Amino acid sequence: MADAKPFHWEYNPEPVAREVFRVEGGHALSGVVPISGAKNAALKMLAAATLTGERCRFTNVPEIEDVRVMADTLRDLGVVVDHPEANVYEVASGDVEWLFVPLEAAAKMRASFMLLGPLLTRFGRVIISNPGGDRIGRRPVDLHVEAMRALGASIDYRNGYYFATAPGRLRGGEIRFPFVSVMGTENAMLAATLAEGHTTIRPAAQEPEIDDLITFLQEMGAEVERTYPDTIEIEGRKRLRGAEHRVIPDRIEAGTFIIAGAVTGGRLTLQGASCDHLASFIETMDRVGVGVSCGSDAIEVDGSALLEGGYRAIDVETAPYPGLPTDLQPPTAVLLTQATGTSHVHEAIFEDRLEWLAEVRRMGARIDMADAHHATIEGPAQLIGAEVEIGDLRAGASLILAALAAQGTTVIHGAHHVHRGYENIERKFLDIGASLARSAEGTDVTPT
Ligand code: EPU
């Protein structure tokens, strides 16, 4: 739809402090990495806490930029957000004075759109900016909007903002998505918890972070259940109560460190990580020849096959859960540069998530991009330190992985992007023997 100038035509993005990582590659990493709580669960729970006026308490929340952005966005609405100690957040949404989520929040983080469902269903109205987020494709929000309409909301789009209202309570209904959407499922589910009557969401995304959100909602007194793998059903309640919840471990952070061990020929213990949510990724590691063993509260990684030239080229394709996560496609592509033979990567979810491979190519990787969704990788390639630029969160972490595998020094510009989603990434890498230094590099106004 053609878009007029937003209200915020005078909007000037806040300057972002740019950072550079200098990584000296070629060291096998070894030791213990504590795995933090899941970003993509914690962000949704902070939004879900606005469904009640009572206090909610979250533990194991990752200390990352996106969580800080969500907390600040809530505070701007009049919500009380306390941060009594590291990894603990408390949210009390008794008085929400301002049912308006501005472009300033949306431009920083797509997950700000997760406030649509809960604010609309509890307060009957909200004005919310069209979100930005990672530079990994168009990423529209039409499914979220249609889901709200299916529950009886009226939504107009004007000047870059969605104006959503619900006459009285939202009404339960049938939500049929044309394809699976993670946040679409979550927004619909949050809206339905306070709607009148029964809601069915199909096909519902099956990501473990959604099941963690369901557990939290149940703790709040919501009647919500995954009745089939691809179906979530909700019986709306008049009100929900405060609750306490511990966020599940971050499977994407765990997968990133599995590759860190693999591409450096190292041995790592990922403390607090669970194999439960990583089955397809671990199967992929198995096919390549990376040793991964699962304990009750840790994952052990053995990358010794790298040194024996034993990694095998394979074909991979991303898919919604339980398939191979798109968020682990970039790290997996780095691993495949070290495997013997020709690998094919099919990124099936997002349209611009292979572009960053151009940066790894500058480091000596032999990669051919057939189109926006398909790449061919010839390995093994000796990666060589170079000057590269990070464009988004997952590509950023993956460039660090490539740099750790490379000979010589890699200078990674735009390193601040990784703080959006990885807690203390520099400290975690230093503690397992990486040679890595972070420094400031002026400022820019690129949305993170
Ligand atoms: N889509 C639409 N219309 C919509 C919503 C989605 O066309 O209204 C399309 C998207 O453009 C995409 C596909 O549907 O092609 C699937 O997107 P989905 O809605 O599942 O993604 P998301 O909910 O926006 C979440 C994660 C992403 C992760 C994807 C896929 C959060 C905050 N974000 O995004 O995580 O890649 O699911 O698993 O949960 C990250 O953490 O780095 C990240 C990008």
Largest pleated sheet: 4 strands, mixed
Average pLDDT number:
93
> Whole-number radius of gyration?
22 Å
Q: Order of strands in the sheet with the most strands?
A: 22-23-1-24
Number of separate helices? 14
Shape: globular
Helix content: 25-40%
Overview of the molecule:
The structure is a single chain. This protein is an alpha/beta fold and 448 residues long. The chain has helices at residues 39-48, 65-77, 103-108, 116-123, 142-150, 182-193, 208-219, 251-263, 279-288, 304-307, 329-336, 357-362, 393-405, 425-431; strands spanning 16-24, 30-34, 56-59, 80-85, 88-92, 100-101, 125-129, 154-158, 161-165, 174-176, 198-202, 223-228, 231-235, 244-246, 267-271, 291-294, 298-302, 315-317, 341-346, 366-371, 374-379, 387-389, 409-413, 435-444. 50% of the residues are buried. Strand 4 and strand 5 (88-92) form a beta hairpin. Helix 4 runs parallel beside helix 6, helix 8 (251-263) packs parallel to helix 13 (393-405) and helix 11 (329-336) runs parallel beside helix 13 (393-405). It is built from 14 helices and 24 strands. The radius of gyration is 22 Å and the shape is globular. The protein has a four-stranded mixed sheet with strand order 22-23-1-24. A four-stranded mixed sheet has the order 2-15-17-16. The longest helix is centred in the first third of the chain and has 13 residues, at 65-77. Residues 39-40, 43, 110-111, 134, 137, 139-144, 181-184, 325-327, 349-350, 393-394, 421 line the site of uridine-diphosphate-2(N-acetylglucosaminyl) butyric acid.
